[in-house]
TrEMBL record:
<keyword id="KW-0237">DNA synthesis</keyword>
<feature type="compositionally biased region" description="Low complexity">
    <location>
        <begin position="702"/>
        <end position="719"/>
    </location>
</feature>
<dbReference type="InterPro" id="IPR013678">
    <property type="entry name" value="RNR_2_N"/>
</dbReference>
<feature type="domain" description="Ribonucleotide reductase class II vitamin B12-dependent N-terminal">
    <location>
        <begin position="43"/>
        <end position="134"/>
    </location>
</feature>
<dbReference type="Pfam" id="PF12637">
    <property type="entry name" value="TSCPD"/>
</dbReference>
<dbReference type="InterPro" id="IPR000788">
    <property type="entry name" value="RNR_lg_C"/>
</dbReference>
<dbReference type="GO" id="GO:0004748">
    <property type="term" value="F:ribonucleoside-diphosphate reductase activity, thioredoxin disulfide as acceptor"/>
</dbReference>
<feature type="domain" description="Ribonucleotide reductase large subunit C-terminal">
    <location>
        <begin position="155"/>
        <end position="690"/>
    </location>
</feature>
<feature type="compositionally biased region" description="Polar residues">
    <location>
        <begin position="877"/>
        <end position="901"/>
    </location>
</feature>
<keyword id="KW-0846">Cobalamin</keyword>
<protein>
    <recommendedName>
        <fullName>Vitamin B12-dependent ribonucleotide reductase</fullName>
        <ecNumber>1.17.4.1</ecNumber>
    </recommendedName>
</protein>
<dbReference type="InterPro" id="IPR013344">
    <property type="entry name" value="RNR_NrdJ/NrdZ"/>
</dbReference>
<keyword id="KW-0547">Nucleotide-binding</keyword>
<feature type="region of interest" description="Disordered">
    <location>
        <begin position="874"/>
        <end position="918"/>
    </location>
</feature>
<comment type="similarity">
    <text>Belongs to the ribonucleoside diphosphate reductase class-2 family.</text>
</comment>
<dbReference type="Pfam" id="PF02867">
    <property type="entry name" value="Ribonuc_red_lgC"/>
</dbReference>
<comment type="function">
    <text>Catalyzes the reduction of ribonucleotides to deoxyribonucleotides. May function to provide a pool of deoxyribonucleotide precursors for DNA repair during oxygen limitation and/or for immediate growth after restoration of oxygen.</text>
</comment>
Length: 963
């Protein structure tokens, strides 16, 4: 075995045809794709927001003007090769794409893929056009390695194997180390290793797989991934009938107890903390491989046998329901283990004559033979949504066949970390085409994620993608031959193709829109079966649904993989500095699709900008709420909504789906059992769950939430007998005897009242008096008491903005129209009073953060796009431009911009983002006042967000997974 095995040694098998004819669909004949777009220069400067230190700087990089700042930053920092500050450093997206695409073209020509040089050139231009316009992206290792002097590793996902011998176990450690060093992840099944309840040939007792997991975990934690600071990505699987299964199930739950105890003793146990390294098993995702036999035993409440590894005999019986409860309990406590459904996985296996599928990659989407790998690519679904809000099935199909061709070509020149992996990949040529932005696509089409319409659209798109991929695979088999292992597995492969076709036939379209996509998928599957019978297939696998973390940001996707929208309001960086808080552009598009008038759309969007959700949005019908359900927030999707969407897509995938089913903190163990059980019944291949706040070693970016983990906080340690207690008491700031006051009369929903507010000499609010109803009435007495309480609070230092944030948006009668031009509608008298006080006493910046503007400011926004007051030219030069449409990037003196750096913010509800927010996850925390239960990024210090069964950083593109 060698560290890197070259793909150059692979032999080319020629078919009957002379090569592919490539149609020109996207690019223009006679015009290079780069010449059709406007390019501009930008400065990329990245700072760790947690420490304040600069972590990266490269000035004058070149990108298309329609690429966001976030996309260009992530590509510059992650994918440009060469030492920063040297001539060898890449500085333009053109260089990056050319480096990759020209390598693919040359390999395609060398291995006989194209009918003519003209077809090779068309292939190059089409691929370039799709990449530069963000229609798809290859997985990260392609951008890291292809066209460089490094080994040409193109795969992100690896599956290893380990046998019951010390040589094999030590080789496992070595192989994982090489894969982590290269920036990828690996998974394997440990079930062949004898349990701790079995004897060795020498007469001693075996150590068992869990003990060997410690060594692998320590190795992964030391090497990290790609030499970076993030953890390595790995998956460890154990079969449910292994005698050590209960020990395996509880490994991470027991370690979570240890984390809790050490934290309470004063140790730093946050993720990345200096003391967390003493905790074991934290570098892997754990999964139990369950069989149909076990799941039926759980349903029936019968016993289940655990089997010796060498002889297969039952050496212990357990209550199946009791074991299932322990799995769910451990997942409740620490999110591990997940479940993989062995019989379902192998029922869809195209190569059973070669071997069973026993494991997966770390994110659970790639499932194939041991010692194999998969290179991934994902399409941006929103790019295929036409102006009439229908999905362009024909264009999508054309893109898929071009991309799958490129992916297959990459195996011809790819290098691999071990010889067995290289041999298996070249013999079976597993590919993993997938997509991103499904959640955004469904919302833009006016379809709820957890709805029949949403699931049907997802199913038909997935079916078309995989069907078109296998159709092209059969066409490639005619040109360069089927994969080497095909003859041995031909009948099994064709059987799985018929299963996919039957699943497609079982889909029942609901509308003309999904019917058109389904018709295209049906046509593709018909061709798959016919061409496959004649030619065989070039690829054993074709599709998966990966997390698409970093590459999703490269494509400016709102949502990753199969995930729903994270939140309705997101954080957006601006060229030239600064940031905005904007409502996702899919929201107004969805509202227009649903038939709302422009005035109503504007009101709903402004409401979402302020509240972060659609509940009680003015004019929005309650039956349309489901369209705007998100992964987080006030209308977060129910757990089974995630499961049902996965079940809709799974029958049309070669592999599986990287996705975590999120549950609220108060979810029960029984609910987790139900998710696991229904996932099996609905035909999923794998399920992972995450219960909010279940992990102690999970740092929060704000102090808004307290991570309690699975148990209550332990009592504080006993104090020493002698101690100094420093007590801080607020001091009352009394108003002067004579002070300025302001009396306002108002009407809310027909109810009249008066408010008098008094201020200190510095203009700070110090008291309020409210008069409602007749003197002596109960309401008048309550208002007097409320006025006194608020006034005393103000004088003792409670900030007015605190009262405003708490009392605005309270909803009760009387409510409705007011006679105040600045506050035209109020949800209650309290809502009106504190909006009025904010307008009278809070500075613009604090009001803007709360979404409160005067009539003059709203009018200014309609005319200029900015709420902010007009300032002098001298003042404006000292700050970031307030108007994003006019934000021009400041260039260094040595770099000249090729075009103005203009980044429009389309929604009228856009406003400056809070200073505390640097990503959409942190922005959601600011808006909702609740914590997003995700780790902080080690590179830039911002809050990450879920992506599949991993996490991804919106600030710099770092991931906790393998893609």
């Amino acid at each position: 075995m060698t560290e890197t095995v070259s793909g150059a040694a692979s032999t080319r098998r020629k078919g009957k045809n002379n090569g592919l004819t490539i149609d020109r669909v996207f690019s223009t004949a006679g015009v290079h794709p780069y010449d059709e777009i406007t390019w501009e220069r930008r400065d990329v400067v990245q700072t760790n927001w947690k420490t304040g230190e600069s972590v990266f700087e490269q000035r004058g990089v070149e990108f298309p003007d329609f690429w966001s700042v976030n996309a260009s930053t992530i590509v510059t920092t992650k994918y440009f090769r060469g030492a920063v500050g040297t001539d060898a450093r890449e500085w333009s997206l053109k260089q990056l794409i050319d480096r990759v695409v020209k390598t693919y073209r040359k390999a395609g020509e060398d291995h006989g893929y194209f009918a003519s040089p003209a077809d090779a050139e068309t292939f190059e231009h089409e691929l370039t056009w799709l990449l530069v316009h963000q229609y798809f992206s290859f997985n990260s290792p392609v951008w890291f390695n292809v066209g460089t002097e490094s080994p040409q590793q193109v795969s992100a996902c690896f599956i290893l194997s380990v046998d019951d011998s010390m040589d094999s176990i030590l080789n496992w450690y070595k192989e994982e180390g090489f894969i982590f060093k290269g920036g990828s992840g690996a998974g394997l099944n440990l079930s062949r290793i004898r349990s701790s309840k079995e004897l060795l040939s020498s007469g001693g007792t075996a150590s068992g797989p869990v003990s060997f997991m410690r060594g692998a975990d320590a190795s992964a934690g030391t090497i990290k991934s790609g030499g970076a600071t993030r953890r390595a990505a790995k998956m460890v699987v154990l079969d449910v009938d292994h005698p050590d299964i209960e020990e395996f199930v509880m490994t991470k739950a027991r370690e979570e107890d240890k984390i809790r105890a050490l934290r309470d003793a004063g140790f730093d146990m946050d993720l990345g903390g200096e003391d967390i390294t003493s905790v074991q098993y934290q570098n892997a995702n754990n999964s139990v491989r369950v069989s149909d036999e076990f799941m039926r035993a759980v349903e029936d409440g019968t016993e289940f046998g655990l089997r010796a590894r060498k002889t297969g005999e039952v050496i212990e019986t357990v209550d199946a329901r009791d074991l299932f409860r322990k799995i769910a309990q451990a997942a409740w406590e620490c999110a591990d283990p997940g479940l993989q459904y062995d019989d379902t996985i192998n029922d869809w296996h195209t190569n059973p004559e070669t071997g069973r599928i026993t494991a997966s990659n770390p994110c659970s989407e790639y499932m194939s033979l041991d010692n194999s790998s998969c290179n991934l690519a994902s399409l941006n679904l929103l790019k295929f949504l036409k102006d009439d809000d229908t999905f362009d099935a024909d264009l999508f199909a054309k893109a898929v066949e071009l991309i799958i061709t490129a992916m297959d070509i990459s195996i011809c020149f790819a290098d691999f970390p071990t010889e067995p992996i290289g041999d298996t990949t070249r013999d079976y040529r597993q590919l993993g085409i997938g997509y991103a932005n499904l959640g955004a696509l469904l919302m833009a089409m006016g379809l709820g994620y957890d709805s029949e319409g949403g699931r049907t659209m997802a199913a038909t798109i997935t079916s078309l993608m995989t069907g078109q991929s296998y159709k092209r695979s059969a066409e490639l088999a005619a040109v360069v031959g089927p994969y080497n292992g095909y003859a041995r597995n031909a009948e099994a492969h064709k059987r799985v193709m018929r299963k996919h076709q039957a699943a497609n036939d079982a889909v029942r379209p609901l509308t003309i829109i999904d019917s058109a996509v389904h018709k295209a998928a049906t046509k593709a599957w018909d061709a798959v079966v016919k061409l496959g019978e004649k030619n065989g297939y070039r690829n054993a696998q074709a599709s998966v649904l990966a997390p698409t973390g970093t590459i999703g940001f490269m494509m400016d996707c709102d949502t990753t993989g199969i995930e729903p929208d994270f939140s309705l309001v997101k954080f957006k960086k601006l060229v030239g500095g600064g940031s905005m808080q904007i409502v996702n552009q899919t929201v107004p598009r969805a509202l227009k699709k649903l038939g709302y008038a422009e005035e109503t759309i504007e009101a709903i969007v402004e409401y979402i900008a302020e509240h972060g959700h659609v509940i009680d949005a003015p004019g929005l019908k309650t039956e349309h709420y489901e369209v705007f359900d998100t992964a987080m927030g006030a209308r977060a999707l129910k757990p089974m909504g995630h499961v049902r969407m996965m079940a809709a897509a799974q029958p049309f995938l070669s592999g599986a789906i990287s996705k975590t089913v999120n549950l609220p903190e108060d979810a029960t163990v029984e609910e987790i059992e139900e998710v696991f059980l229904q996932s099996w019944k609905l035909g999923l291949k794998a399920t992972a769950i995450y219960r909010d706040s279940c992990k102690v070693g999970q740092p929060l970016a704000t102090g808004k939430g307290e991570n309690k983990g699975a148990a209550a906080e332990a009592p504080a340690a006993a104090e020493p007998e002698t101690k100094t207690v420093v007590e801080y008491r607020p001091t009352r700031k009394r108003l002067p005897k004579s002070r300025q006051s302001l009396t306002t009369s108002f009407t809310v929903g027909g109810a009249e009242g008066y408010m008098t507010s008094g201020a200190h000499e510095d203009g700070e609010l110090g008291e309020i008096f409210l008069k409602l109803g007749k003197q002596g009435s109960t309401l008048a007495g309550v208002m007097d008491a409320f006025s006194i309480a608020v006034s005393i609070g103000l004088q003792y230092g409670v900030p007015l903005e605190t009262y405003v944030s708490k009392f605005t948006n309270l909803r009760f009668e009387p409510a409705g129209l007011t006679d105040d031009a600045d506050v035209r509608m109020a949800q209650s008298i309290m809502d009106y009073i504190f909006r009025r006080l904010a307008l009278d006493y809070l500075p613009f910046e604090e009001r803007a953060a709360l979404g409160i503007y005067s009539a003059e400011e709203r009018q200014r926004h309609l005319e200029t796009g900015s709420y902010e007051p007009i300032v002098s030219e001298a003042e404006s030069l000292k700050s970031t431009p307030a108007e994003p449409q006019q934000a021009v990037e400041a260039q260094s003196s040595s770099v000249e911009a090729t075009s103005p750096s203009v980044e429009p913010v389309e929604t009228k509800a856009a406003k400056p983002a809070p200073a505390e927010a640097h990503t959409s996850a942190e922005l959601l925390e600011q808006i909702t006042g609740t914590a997003v239960d995700s780790p902080l990024c080690f590179t830039c210090g911002t809050k990450m967000r879920p992506a599949g069964s991993c996490y991804v950083c919106e600030g710099c593109g770092s991931t906790s997974g393998c893609s």
